[in-house]
Amino acid sequence: MMNTIRQVFRSAKFVTGFVIFIAIILLTILFPLFITYDPLDVVGNGNFYPPGTYISQKDTIKANPYELRIALKQSNVGDSLKTDELDKIKEWLTQYGGMGKSEVQDADAESLIVMWTDKYNPSKRFRGMLASEQKYYKRLNQKLTELLTDKDIIIAEQDENNELKEKSKVKSSDFVNLKEISNKRTLVLGTDNFGRDVLRELVSATTTSLRIGLIAGVVATAIGLTLGLLAGYLGGFIDDLILFITNLFTVIPSFVLLILISYSVGQKQRGVGLVALIIGITSWTWTTRAVRSQVISLRNRDHVNLSKLSGHSSFKIIMTDILPYIASYVVMAFILQVSSGILSEAQLSMLGLGPATTSTATLGLMMNWAMLYSAHLNGSWWAYFPVLFMIAMISFSLNLMNTGLDQVFNPQLRD
Questions:
Q1: Does a structural domain hold residue 57?
Q2: Which of 105-119, 166-180, 263-277, 329-343 has the largest mean confidence?
Q3: Is 99 a member of any domain?
Q4: What is the pLDDT of residue 256?
């Protein structure tokens, strides 16, 4: 036994996959110990807040200001302009500013503003320009001038007569110490469409998806192993019957069968456990066929015939003389079934047929929510890319472990 374990851990592929998978398991165990709030708590009142550290604006106003003599970065004026305003700047630069179309089209907002301030003269009249256009460009220039001007921000408060009176001014050289701000929150992966912390939700969803994969893997492997052992060892009518049922399920694509069963169950009844069970009972066919072929090659070996002559029962022969010889193959089948179960849940959830739950999340549900709220269209990569990466890493690690085991136990693949 120990010698077999040593051989397994000499496989670079198995070790790599094992380390990645254990790291994911440790993340799901240790992270909730330090971040204890509910993963489905709504922390933002808007959709898809970007990753970063959020501090209370009220606290920054009340905090003690520190005047620092350091070089200040210009505010991102380009973000304050609308798309049609940027298009108008491009149009003016090409028609009246003497700029080439290629220079203007490829320029970003900040470069366009630099070109505009260098070329535009509000007092100059341009031939062929309508009076309404002239007024529009003057208003646009005035807006840009105000955005580029460094003005103090006035903080006012209401007095007893409901009139606003100046309380203080905030200069561009005023800074606050972040350590003195008590109300702050770091959202490493921002928030999703519901305003929930994506990182905390991702860890919780990974835990749930692993549980679904584990249950589905156990169910599918148990069914496939039992039927494969019986069909391969007993043969005859039992073998024909099991093979007929297996072929019947094989003809119907398992994913189509999975969709039909999930839909027929109904949305309210589809919990995490039930979805895992449905995935398991639709994924056993290839395990049955593979185990059956292995058992057929073993049932006429000398040690099996000797046990038959000794009067041992069929159950004992299967458990002591056949099962140990295919144990490594069963482990590899189980690993693949776990990976298949996680991917199947993600596919079902993307179609809206996954677990119907408001108390927990899965990787598939997170992808479904991101898709429904068009995260991939509005640039909110943090809502779906970490989920895709986690699914890919789980599948990659499990398949790498399976490949490593195959190299160890398959004589044809040994170095």
A1: no
A2: 329-343
A3: yes
A4: 80
Does a structural domain hold residue 50?
A: no
Q: Residue 207 above 90 pLDDT?
A: yes
Taking the C-alpha atoms of residue 204 and residue 40, their distance in angstroms, rounded to an integer, is 9
Determine the Cα–Cα distance for residues 51 and 399; give it in Å rounded to an integer. 32
Nearest to 175 by CA among 73, 64, 74, 75: 64
The answer for residues whose C-beta is within 8 angstroms of residue 218's C-beta and 6 or more apart is 280, 334
Total domains in the chain come to 2
For 19, the domain range is 2-43+193-413
Domain boundary among 160, 184, 208: 184
For the whole model, what pTM was predicted?
0.77
Q: Are residues 16 and 103 in the same domain?
A: no
Percentage, residues of the chain above pLDDT 90: 22
Identify whether the C-beta of residue 83 lies closer than 8 Å to the C-beta of residue 105.
Answer: no
Question: Which own/partner contact pairs does 92-100 have at CB distance under 8 Å and 24+ positions apart?
Answer: 92/116, 92/120, 92/137, 93/119, 96/126, 96/129
Looking at the fold, whether 169 and 308 belong to one and the same domain comes out as: no
Tokens representing residue 354 in the block:
């996954």
CA angle 276, 282, 286 (to 5 degrees): 120
348 close to 411: Cβ distance less than 8 angstroms = no
Q: Is residue 56 part of a domain?
A: no
| One domain for residues 240 and 380 | yes
Question: Beta strand 153-158 with 164-170: parallel, antiparallel or unpaired?
Answer: antiparallel
